[in-house]
Backbone:
């Protein structure tokens, strides 16, 4: 390959480098520094070495929160991806229904996370919430404040309500980009509905589905605001995900050393998963 | 300028200086031999030498974490294992 003949381009990226340094690199360095020390405030620090890392890695609290995170993400993906595909397949392709459906689908995405949490927190309450009171009237014993399963169901339904639209919109974008000629050819060959989906629509949606999968996994793995507003991590610790645990540790208990160690471990897990997904995505692109 | 709020220590400063030196070395390597030396290794996808450094550093971080979780606080063996791993990544990935 030829040598770069114009190095002026490097100066163009300097502002971005400075911005990233201030917003990411310097805070990350500070967190690393905190993770090997102990502090009681007043800008005084005591060397702790790798003790906080050992504490975090050998604690049930960390592994339980990580397991909850992974289970939550797996359930979210198992529901939102197929549901998003089904809804996108059944959305109108032309006429007045298109803008109506698109606006309806986009609405949940426009609501801020904390507002979504507040809506569902009130909606699910047994004393004043529509969902809670309806379920009670139907004889279903539902109370997300006291029952861990109810809390999980509430969080999953809330996330599905909030984010399935994103999968729908991405799949719909993939579907409308398929030329009519493909469907006409399939009709001439007498292809069944399933064959059209399996051999035309699904391959054409592959790239957008991968993006949807990535976005939903990363979002659900780093979820904080909604469960914090609805359940606060409870009942007990049943909905305490890593992010909630981290905030409890850092702000609630003022254990900045262990919280910094947990932050670094959490960051490394997210970095690893992001790299795996990015590699899968770019390799898949290169093959196609 | 006062950086005491960043709570610097000698070991963490040495760690970040090492990372910075690695990045500078990669830049010099790229200047001397441009193009990133892309190739398809045992992982069956194309990597440049920058990718290989990233995989080495990320893998080394997890080797150290695994050592801390399973073995204890003495990290010299983890460091040796990471160097072997990084050499392997640069040779075969």
Residues:
């Amino acid at each position: 390959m030829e040598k770069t003949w114009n190095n002026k381009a490097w100066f163009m990226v300097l502002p971005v480098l400075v911005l990233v340094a201030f917003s990411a690199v310097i805070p990350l360095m500070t967190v690393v520094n905190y993770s090997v020390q102990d502090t009681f405030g007043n800008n005084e620090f005591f060397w702790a070495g790798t003790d906080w890392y050992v504490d975090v890695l050998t604690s049930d609290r960390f592994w339980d929160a990580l397991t909850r995170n992974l289970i939550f993400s797996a359930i979210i993906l198992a529901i939102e991806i197929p549901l998003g595909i089904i809804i996108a397949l059944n959305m109108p392709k032309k006429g007045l229904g298109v803008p109506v459906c698109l606006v309806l689908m986009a609405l949940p995405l426009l609501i801020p996370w904390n507002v979504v949490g507040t809506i569902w927190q009130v909606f699910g309450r047994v004393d004043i919430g529509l969902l809670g009171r309806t379920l009670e009237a139907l004889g279903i014993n539902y109370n997300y404040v006291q029952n861990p399963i109810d809390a999980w169901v509430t969080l999953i339904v809330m996330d599905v309500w909030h984010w399935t639209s994103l999968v729908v919109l991405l799949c719909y974008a993939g579907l409308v980009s398929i030329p009519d000629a493909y469907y006409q050819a399939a009709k001439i060959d007498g292809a069944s509905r399933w064959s059209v989906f399996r051999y035309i629509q699904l391959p054409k949606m592959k790239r957008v589905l991968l993006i949807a999968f990535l976005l939903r996994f990363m979002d659900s793995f780093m979820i904080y605001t909604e469960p914090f507003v609805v359940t606060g991590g409870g009942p007990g610790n049943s909905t305490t995900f890593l992010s909630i645990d981290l905030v409890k540790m850092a702000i609630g208990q003022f254990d900045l050393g262990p919280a910094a160690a947990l932050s670094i471990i959490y960051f490394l897990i997210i970095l690893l998963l992001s790299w795996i997904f990015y590699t899968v995505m770019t390799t898949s692109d290169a093959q196609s | 300028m006062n950086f005491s709020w960043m709570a610097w220590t000698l070991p963490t400063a040495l760690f970040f200086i090492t990372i910075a030196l690695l990045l500078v070395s990669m830049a010099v390597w790229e200047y001397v031999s441009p193009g990133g030396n892309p190739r398809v290794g045992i992982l069956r996808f194309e990597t440049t030498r920058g990718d290989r450094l990233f995989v080495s550093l990320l893998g080394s971080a997890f080797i150290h974490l695994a050592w801390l979780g399973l073995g204890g606080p003495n990290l010299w063996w983890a460091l040796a294992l990471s160097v072997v791993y990084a050499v392997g990544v640069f040779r075969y990935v």
